[in-house]
Amino acid sequence: MKFKRPLLIVAAVVATLVFSNLTSVSVTPSDVSENYPPVVCPATPAGESSAISVPSTQTGSRVLGKKTIIFKPTRTLRLMQGSSPTVLDTKNMTSPVWQIKKGVWAGATICSAPSTSQWFVGGAADVTSKGKLILINSGLSEAIIDVEIWSESGIRPPKVVTLKANSSVVQTLDSLDPGAKRIALHIVPRSGRVNAFLVDERGRGLKSLGGDMVNASPDPSKVIVIPAIPHMKRSGKTLGHALRVIAPGDVDARISVELISTKGSFVPVGFDDRAIKAGIVTEVSLNPQLIPSTFALKISSDRPIVASVYSSTYAQAKSDFVWSTSTAEMTEYSLAVSGLAPTLVFSGERVSVSLSILYTNKKEKKFTVTGEGIATFRVPENARTVNFIKVSDKTVGGALISTQSGYGYLPLVPGSELTRVLLPSANIRVLNP
Fold this sequence. Notes:
There is one protein chain. A hairpin with a 3-residue loop joins strand 9 and strand 10. It contains 1 helix and 35 strands. The two termini are 35 Å apart. With 433 residues, it is mainly β. It folds into 2 domains: 4-32 and 423-430, no CATH class; 39-417, no CATH class.
């Protein structure tokens, strides 16, 4: 009996320690921090003006390049952009930018979080080009950025741009590949929190040929959809389009193009199993026999490609042009629309989109948009935000905007995605390895 009691005590202590070590892993919770990264809006070049639609008068904003990094309320639903980029804390809302040269041209894009890869298919670098590439580093350390360039002559030597912390730079397109009529760009940051925006403005002498903001496209893919392409007439004459494609790999691609309209879908003549040379920016005229409307393109390829469509436009007695770009599949998110009243265009095999509109008088109304192949919805003038509550599978979307200064397009994708960061937590195994 004298020996049994100490043995029982030792066994109990050992069992307690073993049980503690085993259960410490299973019961210790993993803390996760969730947040939406702030988004960056492009600067307004000289001679132009920009307005940002924000979801609330309490939306936090700050000007890039200032010493302070404190966000202050916008106190307006329509924030006038200055000559420096603006950083917004929009949380789960997306803010579009409407940029114009009054009476000359207009274009649209979205304020977005920094990206590790951006593709731009659009613009020119010839004698008509007045276009600009805007590079922004919103981080607190230096950024090194590779700008990869393709044209009708093939791939060009990349340019390396170094940006100081909390700063931006404007690079003219004609300095990237002088004389090129068709360009495509890939922006790849090596370091820093980088955003890129592309402005395609053209003129011949003192005569303006229009302009637009070219939105970034997703990475190359074998199947892409360009959801919102405006088809217009002027003086009884149909205005044309040009499909621009780049297969950035080393192997030629073969593509097939399906045109999707409210009257059905078909393959335009000459667009079935068409060859696209690798590394060459190819542009093909597209002149479908359609009534004035909006259509979409679905492009299938045996090699990854990126593409966009250039369209001549005439709306509100103003000639302009617009770049409609490919975009990712839609998700449930919210879009600020104060002062814009865009036409939303959805494309998919079976479109079904449930949305809720919040008006400036704070009333709310729900709608459901359905269709086969393509469907449209005009947002009311007094709308403040559009909440996409439910979106059908494999549906993509774009928004078209018309004003007296010109025509614009933006993809219906969120400007910022929810990020999750695992936080360190205490664990007894640190003390008892």
